[in-house]
């Protein structure tokens, strides 16, 4: 994975090396702004980031390739012995976060800190994007089960695995992705395709065949021809299962007016004494559609959500960036650094984020402060790496999921509304504001910008 980087990371590092500039530096990884259709982010990807930092090396094949790109031998020799030796602070995975808050804070020799940038941005971007989208879907479902169904539409195999992981973190109850289930221990779910129904001469034969193979876990897809007629045949097979001591798990509808169909199917199943059979719905769903279905009284117990959630269709990325915030000065002390680019000003210095809660534990506001500043509230960033070694007990996926769901429950509902939600307040501390003002004046003077 060391070569999963942008060329300019390596060229900058080669120049640092050439000029014997490898002083310590601190970079903040954060999300610059909220898009119009998001009100918060669920931070994800920390585990993969830390494992990458722990293991990053350059092998002989990679060195040979870089030699062909024109890099000097002394720099290539440095890379052949490369190890990350820095310190990292991070927000725990599953935490709800907001714009401009440092999510990762990396302090390391400048070459080390620079060379890992692209991978860190890539993994945090995709996982935070999907976890945030899935969290919105889960919240809209109001306790109804959500299953991640998006593998076939995600942008590549790795994205498919990460979509399942991040959806589970956000509160989905499982995934259709078998490899993700095996790799991460996520519950796996599956039903059947329309092709299975069509392969048999009659719909009821398909139901009977599937029930024979999976008498304890069957879900029948009932809308291949006619949803109500399909439900009637499913009820027949369900009664046949009862006689053998089993129960049909659920029926699935994948098209049409899901509100009206679910009501008709629920009434039919209840009339036949099958009130235990759940109704599972799928088909181009997202948080807006789930909210609409439930508000109109759909009789749906669980949702299979695929493409729009697993690709975060309405916002397929977050504006995540990695910027220098301080560097080692000539006197051996850290000097704050910041950008003054219009619309892209960054906060200088080493920082901490403090979260203020009310007496019931609900989030009130966040304060971005200097790391050693006295500020009320709970500090969010914790040390996760020291001298290149992980010093943080990586939580289980189940624990990360619990963190995400607890965070969501503590974020007041007004900030979670899908439409017209107010912005959650994130403030700068007095110390940070003072540093920003002072450094702005000094930089403008030094660069003759006044």
Helix content: 40-55%
Unreliable parts: none
Which second-level CATH architecture of the largest domain applies? Alpha-Beta Barrel
Shape, principal axes of CA atoms = elongated
CATH fourth-tier homologous superfamily of the largest domain: nicotinate phosphoribosyltransferase
The first-level CATH class of the largest domain is given as Alpha Beta
Q: Provide the β-strand percentage band.
A: 15-25%
Distance between the termini: 44 Å
Q: What is the average per-residue confidence, as pLDDT, rounded to a whole number?
A: 96
Number of strands: 19
How would a textbook summarize the main sheet? 7 strands, antiparallel
Structure in words:
It is a single chain. The strands form four sheets. A seven-stranded antiparallel sheet has the order 13-12-1-5-3-17-18. Strands 7-6-11-10-9-8 form a six-stranded parallel sheet. With 450 residues, it is of the alpha/beta class. The longest helix is centred in the first third of the chain and has 25 residues. The chain has two domains: 256 residues, Alpha-Beta Barrel (nicotinate phosphoribosyltransferase), CATH 3.20.140; 111 residues, TIM Barrel, CATH 3.20.20.70. It is built from 16 helices and 19 strands. Helix 11 runs parallel beside helix 12.
């Amino acid at each position: 994975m060391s070569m999963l980087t942008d060329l300019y990371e390596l060229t900058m590092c080669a120049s640092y090396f050439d000029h014997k500039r490898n002083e310590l530096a601190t970079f903040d990884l954060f999300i610059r702004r909220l898009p119009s259709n998001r009100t918060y982010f669920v931070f994800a990807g920390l585990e993969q980031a830390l494992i990458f930092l722990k293991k990053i090396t350059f092998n002989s094949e990679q060195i040979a390739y870089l030699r062909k790109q024109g890099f000097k031998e002394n720099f290539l020799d440095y890379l052949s012995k490369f190890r990350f030796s820095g310190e990292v602070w991070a927000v725990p995975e599953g935490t709800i976060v907001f714009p401009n808050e440092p999510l990762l804070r990396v302090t390391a020799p400048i070459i080390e800190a620079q060379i890992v940038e692209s991978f860190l941005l890539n993994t945090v971007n995709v996982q935070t994007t999907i976890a945030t989208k899935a969290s919105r879907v889960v919240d809209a479902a109001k306790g109804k089960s959500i299953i991640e169904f998006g593998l076939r539409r995600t942008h590549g195999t790795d994205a498919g695995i990460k979509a399942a992981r991040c959806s589970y973190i956000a509160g989905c109850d499982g995934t259709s992705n078998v490899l993700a289930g095996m790799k991460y221990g996520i519950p796996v779910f599956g039903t059947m395709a329309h092709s299975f129904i069509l392969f048999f001469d009659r719909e009821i034969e398909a139901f009977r065949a599937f029930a024979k193979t999976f008498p304890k876990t069957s879900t029948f897809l009932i809308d291949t021809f006619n949803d109500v007629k399909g439900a009637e045949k499913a009820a027949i097979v369900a009664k046949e299962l009862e006689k053998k001591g089993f129960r049909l798990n659920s029926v699935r509808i994948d098209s049409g007016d899901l509100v009206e169909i679910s009501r008709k199917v629920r009434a039919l199943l209840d009339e036949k004494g099958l009130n235990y059979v759940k109704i599972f719905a799928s088909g181009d769903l997202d948080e807006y559609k789930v909210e609409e279905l439930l508000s109109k009284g759909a009789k749906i117990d669980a949702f299979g959500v695929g493409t729009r959630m697993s690709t975060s269709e309405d916002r397929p990325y977050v504006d995540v960036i990695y910027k220098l915030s301080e560097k080692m000065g000539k006197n051996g002390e850290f000097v704050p650094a910041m950008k003054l680019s219009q619309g892209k000003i960054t906060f200088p210095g080493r920082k901490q984020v403090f979260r203020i809660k009310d007496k019931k534990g609900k989030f009130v506001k966040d304060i971005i402060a200097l790391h050693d500043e006295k500020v009320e509230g709970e500090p969010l960033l914790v040390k996760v790496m020291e001298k290149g070694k992980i010093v943080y007990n990586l939580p289980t996926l189940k624990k990360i999921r619990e963190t995400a769901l607890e965070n969501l429950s503590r974020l007041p509902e007004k900030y979670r509304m899908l439409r017209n939600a107010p912005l959650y307040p994130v403030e700068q501390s007095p110390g940070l504001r003072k540093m920003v003002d002072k450094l702005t004046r000094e930089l403008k003077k030094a660069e003759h910008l006044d």
